Amino acid sequence: MAKFVCALSGIKAQSEEFMEMDDDPYPEGWIELKFTRRYISPKWEAIQYVKQGLVAQYVQNIPEEQREEQLMALSIQVDAQFAALEDMTDKWEEDSQTLHIANPDNNDALMAEYNKLRKSLGLKAEVKLIEEPVEDAKEVKEGTVDAPV
Fold first, then answer.
1. The dihedral of CA 59, 61, 65, 66: what is its sign?
2. pTM reported for the whole predicted model
3. For the residues of 25-41, what is the DSSP string, one character each?
4. 90: nearest Cα among 54, 50, 53, 45
5. How far apart are alpha carbons 10 and 8 in whole angstroms?
């Protein structure tokens, strides 16, 4: 069973909170946040830099009046030289983190913090999914209903 610890409160998921979802135990009502940052691979970037350098080096060996018409052919030749290496190299790298927030439905302080987080991300506030039990509809509250005469 995976360990679930709330990133906001430090609360650990209790065994009775877990439900089976596609053979993957997950605590009921918990929230999962995944942050992924994607950036260009330094190795990919280095390959592109080397290719540009080679094209520039090859162009230097061609008479100036022929450079422009030879540039495309040289670029294709260099691209062909590095095609296999580029195929083996990922262009992008990702840094990913997954965090969990305990079920906030029964914890007003946690719900308030969760809603602050949602607001800071531009999301609407969430309300409790589990409603409090409704009192008897016939209950007379002081000052709201006149007593029968």
1. negative
2. 0.61
3. EEETT-EEEEEEEEEE-
4. 45
5. 6
Distance CA 58, CA 70 (A): 10
pLDDT digits (tens, 9 = 90+) for 26-72: 888 899 999 999 999 999 999 999 999 999 999 999 998 988 899 99
Give the type of residue at 110. L
pLDDT, tens digit (0-9, with 9 covering 90-100), for 38-49:
999 999 999 999
Domain boundaries, the chain: 1-39+93-126, 42-89
Q: Is 77 left (phi over 0), alpha (psi -120 to 50) or beta?
A: alpha
Tens of pLDDT, residue by residue over 105-145, are: 989 999 999 999 999 999 998 877 655 555 544 444 444 44
Tokens read off for 116: 């602050």
